[in-house]
């Protein structure tokens, strides 16, 4: 028999489709899978995608169409159960904490539900060790209380392979005493990537290690970072002076903090570390003090200032300035200015232009460069009340003017808790240094170029400016870190200012002779 317009037909086999007696209550239309029930169970090596079954169908079987999108691949599976297994050894292996997009549709022989979806992540795994573990050591001296405390700052970077969200880090710190390991920190859990450990013992070697944690498990420990507290290993930080601000910049963490704004650009800046004070001279040759949050004008200097330095032990500011003829070095006594009128004293007068002034408080000496007519390093001794060229015939291992060495107007002093002070200067193509006590000269393996200025040195780092960029070489022969700043003018590293023993700060009494 012909069927006009027929496009499809169905053959029903009563033996195959057996209907229940109460056909009016049959439900073969599955409900949507509950989105919130789609979840991950297991470990990162072997886990299942599971969901709650659809329970409203009362006739026939319920099947599930599962679509999985992982990275760049898509998988489609038709299942009769409410789970799907991933195995690390299988072809569908998924790394730890990988995003998995899942859609599920329930269906019967007759109808399908709408799709449910969920964004899942494979289980977390074991994280790799944190990167770049490093330790900085800082000494704090209080000459009044005769105290000397030592803190260590332990830093690290997140692991290369976290294998899941990092929920924290466990920090370990220990040292050996009488062949016994003493624990300062034994797996202390912290959230950040820095731990400051205070009140360390002087001249002791401490070991630092750290491990990362995920919700699954702990990672391996980093290699031990061992530091001796007799040495100073400061964080590479500097005050960056721009035309409008003084910033504190951490070259290690690459974080910047605003310290104070300035209405007139600053030319020179120094600090009194123990008291938390800054002093600067601006373009108007005005001397300011900054303490806490207040700025105070201390003095208007009579001539153009060429350099500024501070003796933090005696609390005296020194600057060189141009006179009507020649130049002079002046001393500004902060002890008297706190209580009395300004006490200003001219220390040295020279016919040449004195610049790059630095002071060595322990030696009670001033150093500067002066063009006569080429740049020469001069020294003034307060104890001898004498000014002379720094290099003479007694420095057999060091250059002098007659040796044809070109000294450039770059000068800085390095002080250290465990070594003598060293004076650094620039020659053509190189830097050199000399120990102020030993008089031994050393080549500093770093090339000088005429665009370098604001050069400074601490125990581990070498700082300078070029154009609009601040640089620091992290250690001898180490990596160089740089950061650009708008209208940068000068920088000042946060070097520790050391003090002699307390007895050396007390005025001599009769019949006393402290050596």
Automatic annotation (TrEMBL):
Pfam families: fn3
CDD domains: FN3
Domain Fibronectin type-III: 136-232
Superkingdom of origin: Eukaryota
Sections of the chain in a coiled coil: none
Protein name in the entry: Protein sevenless
Taxon lineage: Eukaryota, Metazoa, Ecdysozoa, Arthropoda, Hexapoda
């Amino acid at each position: 028999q012909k069927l006009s317009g027929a496009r499809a037909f169905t053959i029903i086999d009563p033996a195959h489709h057996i209907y229940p007696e109460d056909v009016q209550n049959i439900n073969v239309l599955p409900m949507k899978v509950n989105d919130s029930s789609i979840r991950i169970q297991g470990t990162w090596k072997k886990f299942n995608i599971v969901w709650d079954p659809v329970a409203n169908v009362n006739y026939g079987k319920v099947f599930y169409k599962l679509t999985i999108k992982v990275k760049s691949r898509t998988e489609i599976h038709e299942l009769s159960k409410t789970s799907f297994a991933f195995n690390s050894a299988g072809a569908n292996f998924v790394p730890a904490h990988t995003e998995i997009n899942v859609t599920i549709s329930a269906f019967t022989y007759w109808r399908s539900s709408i799709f449910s979806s969920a964004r899942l992540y494979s289980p977390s795994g074991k994280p790799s060790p944190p990167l770049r573990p490093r330790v900085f050591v800082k000494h704090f001296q209080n000459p009044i209380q005769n105290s000397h405390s030592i803190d260590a700052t332990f830093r690290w970077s997140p692991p290369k392979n976290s294998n899941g969200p990092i929920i924290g880090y466990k920090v370990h710190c220990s040292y050996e005493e009488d062949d016994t390991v003493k624990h300062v920190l034994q797996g202390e859990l912290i959230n950040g990537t820095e731990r400051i450990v205070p009140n360390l013992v002087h001249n002791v070697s401490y070991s630092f290690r750290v491990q990362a944690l995920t919700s699954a498990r702990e990672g391996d420990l980093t290699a031990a970072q061992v530091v001796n507290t007799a040495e100073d290993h400061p964080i590479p930080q500097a005050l960056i002076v721009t035309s409008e601000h003084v910033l504190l910049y951490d070259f290690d963490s690459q974080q910047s903090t605003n310290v104070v704004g300035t209405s007139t650009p600053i030319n020179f800046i120094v600090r009194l570390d123990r008291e938390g004070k800054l002093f600067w001279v601006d373009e108007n040759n005005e001397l300011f003090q900054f303490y806490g949050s207040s700025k105070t004008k201390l003095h208007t200097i009579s001539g153009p200032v060429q350099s500024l330095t501070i003796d933090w032990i005696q609390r005296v500011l020194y600057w060189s300035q141009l006179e009507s003829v020649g130049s002079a070095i002046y001393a500004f006594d902060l002890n008297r200015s706190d209580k009395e009128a300004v006490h200003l004293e001219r220390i040295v007068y020279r016919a040449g232009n004195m610049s790059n002034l630095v002071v060595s408080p322990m030696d009670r000496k001033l150093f500067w460069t002066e063009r006569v007519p080429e740049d020469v390093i001069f020294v003034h001794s307060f104890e001898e009340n004498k000014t002379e060229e720094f290099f003479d015939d007694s420095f057999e291992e060091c250059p002098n003017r007659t040796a044809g060495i070109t000294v450039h107007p770059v000068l800085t002093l390095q002080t250290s808790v465990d070594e003598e002070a060293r004076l650094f200067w620039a020659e053509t193509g190189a830097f050199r240094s000399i120990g102020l006590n030993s008089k031994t000269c050393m080549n500093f393996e770093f090339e000088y170029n005429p665009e370098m200025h604001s050069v400074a040195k601490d125990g581990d780092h070498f700082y300078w400016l070029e154009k609009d960029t601040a640089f620091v070489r992290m250690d001898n022969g180490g990596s160089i870190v740089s950061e650009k700043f708008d209208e940068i003018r000068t920088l000042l590293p946060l070097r520790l200012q050391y003090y002699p023993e307390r007895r050396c700060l007390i005025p001599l009494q009769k019949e006393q002779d402290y050596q």
